[in-house]
Amino acid sequence: MLKIFKYLKFKEWVQAAISLVFIVIQVWLDLKLPDYMSDITRLVQTPGSAMSDIWEQGFYMLLCALGSVISAVIVGFFAARIAASFSQRLRSMLFYKVDSFSMEEINRFSTSSLITRSTNDITQIQMLVTMGLQMIVKAPILSVWALTKIAGKGMEWSLATGVAVLIMIVIIAFIMIFVLPKFRKMQTLTDNLNQVTRENLTGLRVVRAYNAEAYQEEKFEKANEELTKTQLFTSRGMAVMMPMMSMIMSGLSLAIYWIGAYLIQDAQAMDKLPIFSNMVVFSAYAVQVIMSFMMLVMLFILMPRATVSAKRINEVLDTKPTIISGTLTEGKTGLVGEVEFKNVSFKYPDAAEYVLQDVSFSVKKGETVAFIGSTGSGKSTLINLVPRFFDATEGQVLIDGVNVKDYDTEALYNKIGYVPQKAVLFRGSVSSNVAYGENGKETVSEEQVRKAVAIAQGTDFVEAMDSGYYADISQGGTNVSGGQKQRLAIARAVCRDPEIYIFDDSFSALDYKTDRVLRSALKKETAGITSLIVAQRIGTIMDADQIIVLDEGRMVGKGTHKELLATCQVYKEIAMSQLSEEELVS
Ligand SMILES: Nc1ncnc2c1ncn2[C@@H]1O[C@H](COP(=O)(O)OP(=O)(O)OP(=O)(O)O)[C@@H](O)[C@H]1O
Asked: Which GO terms of the molecular function aspect are on file (predicted)?
């Protein structure tokens, strides 16, 4: 928990220190009140007291109360400020950290858990800072100070207060044993609920189409029920706890007056007044002692959740990304757009089996290399090693003669134009999506955007949109078709003007004609740029300079379409399943 506070800035520590001063002032003023009360009681009971003296003490009491309120407002103001700026910083830090994560870390935490950590967990910390700053400091000062004030003012009353404090301690222990574990569980259950909600929302169309609402609702209800049950348990615990605390507080006041009544009755006439005055003061201080314990209980409610949240936030912030940037910004002199795999093997983190085994090939500048193979043969995995979404477990992946691990990641990404299997569009316009990101060169002009869209065969549909290149694209690109999305994603890669294109099955949503026209435009307009293409269709890749055939993670063929037809059985089978006799021969 304390570890998270190392992210507080000096300015916030200063504000906390100022708050501390005001908290001490507030406690001092609160504890001063009973003194004046005692004076007033004494004055009222003393024959011949002047009314003006009583008014004077009353005026001091009023001043104390006012000062206490002003101090409380100042403390509240600072606490809110510190909490708000601290949580803003934590949110930014989490965002930047997650941005630096590779797929391995994202998968390890899960997307929904990362979202809960950046929102709900930070709110818990914010709440703790806002309320805790006042209580953590105030409760111990108040209790110790109030106890010193009542010390020696009456054995019997001290005993009564001791019993009340003991009962309070038993209650706090009860909270710690039974309620704390439930608070800890609450964050994980919130994660779980978010996960189910997210899955349902992203897959809503499938849920509808398969009449799976009942199934999804059941999943949701289970997660919801679990969270509700835990919340109810803790709330019930607290619902019982708070009135019990108030009861103890009132009970103690009653006990003090009751004991006081006996003491006054048994006392000599001249001792009656001091005992009465002591009793009034004692009960006021005893209430403060109980109040401080009540604050502690409140802290015990806030602390466990915030502690769990702090741990979860720290887990993310302390995670070292497995993909660490190198330092080189350029490849070997004279080499541009060259890719080489040297005996590359790969297995996913925590997986037992290798997904790729001993893959070796090299690609020269301007060449097109295609990867084909059955589903799950490792094609996407293979090309994901080039932009370092994962690092090779064994062997080396080289770009321009340099291991990808040695490149500064920004310089590495500047060399690559990557189009994923599932096109991703961001909220904005057509233009902002195509000119997306930076490539270390000058900013992209409107002309370049138009040209990229034209190469990606998107001009017709973009110009038919309401505002053309400035037409709105909604989050995830839900207002364009799958093929249009893919064309915009391809245009984005073209606009980047990279050394190497990576197309991960990026032509699959295009019709055959668009696929052919797009590839020939790419070849013509972007000659000299190396292309790595994963494809399922033989038609898409038969013109490639080199085709690599994968089967269960192993390279079982390498060559041109013609060579492979003659030498590679796996390729021949794929080709025969897709092409007619004439196409095979031609
Ligand atoms: N993140 C991951 N964690 C663990 N295993 C994975 C992960 N992604 C893929 N795999 C496994 O790696 C193997 C290769 O997957 P990959 O996506 O590379 O195949 P592919 O040839 O591209 O398939 P497709 O043509 O269906 O896209 C599969 O067996 C898959 O289950």
From this structure: ABC-type transporter activity; ATP binding; ATP hydrolysis activity
